[in-house]
Amino acid sequence: LAFSLLDNGFFIDFCNALCHAYLVPDRSSFVTSRLAIETTYAMEQLKTMLETFVHLTLSFDGWTSRRKDEIYTAHISTPARVSYLVAGIILTGISATGKKICEELTKIILFYAAMRFSMIVSDTTRNVKKCRALICKKWPWILNCPDPAHQLNLLHKEVMVGSKKYPKVKGFTEVAISIITTFFSHGNDATKHLRDELKTEEDRRSLVAFGETRFSTFENQSSSVAPCFESIQSIQERGLVKFDTKSTKPLQAIFTRDSDAQLEFRRNLNSINLLHKPISRGLKTIENQIVTCSDVFNIWIGMGIGFYEVFATPGKSFFIARIGL
């Protein structure tokens, strides 16, 4: 039965009719006590099960709550890549230093026996990198592994941000892509007109908004704009949508047919998609839960081949955009 029944007036009257002496317990106190008991029982069962494995992987990640509390979750994965949530670490009013996180994770490692662990995984922020290093120093047989998916996401970022030698890949194109996806994700009328227009196209996939993606957010946005471009231009020319607000006015030149601004935007959009495609393919594969270390190695090789195909043909639009032709 659902715990919500404890607050249901009919259920309270029903119990009273069956037995006047019975007092229906308060929902909050009942759930709190039962939840603690069930959690303890579940953790005991989990420990018994994990004690049958070796080569476990400890992974952890953190975020900041609205109340500015640092919260970290810890998972243990078996060699078959089945993951279990084993702890939630809340650091209220405490600095989340690498040493402090290490102290909390040490309790978990000792609870499940350090000899059973073979790897520790996290993203690459400074404090968690230090934490992983401290763990591996204490137990040298535990491998120190940065999260491959996080690394590839950073590679996406580096491609867009550029370097000292190469500047951004046309910063305005990046801004325009965000304006387009935001406009069609927030406007119900615009979204309906675009979907109706796409029904006549072979590729009926619509735009991907920023909040609907995980890793490689921008790449998913940019790759969704390209197949929708003609449909957006069509509904704009027919007056079904108007880019007349302060934020959308820059799109007017882009959606003026055969204009210089449109040709430049589409060329740069193609270049961005060419550069991000090898990384995106790797990410889609690597996010699978059953991926192993050997799979990660093969994915890196596949990405290298993908980049080779992009750079091996100097006539591709990426090179044209770089030299400004």
Describe the protein.
This protein is an alpha/beta fold and about 325 residues long. The protein has 3 domains: about 5-50, no CATH class; about 55-145, 2-Layer Sandwich (Nucleotidyltransferase, domain 5); about 155-325, no CATH class. About 55% of the residues lie in helices and about 10% in strands. It has helices at about 10-20, 25-50, 100-110, 125-140, 150-160, 170-185, 190-200, 215-235, 250-255, 260-285, 295-310, 315-325, and strands at about 55-65, 70-75, 85-90, 115-120, 145. It has a 5-stranded mixed β-sheet. Helix 4 (about 125-140) links the parallel strand 4 and strand 5 (about 145). Helix 3 packs across helix 4 (about 125-140). The model is unreliable at about 210-215 and about 320-325 (pLDDT under 50). It comes from Favolaschia claudopus.
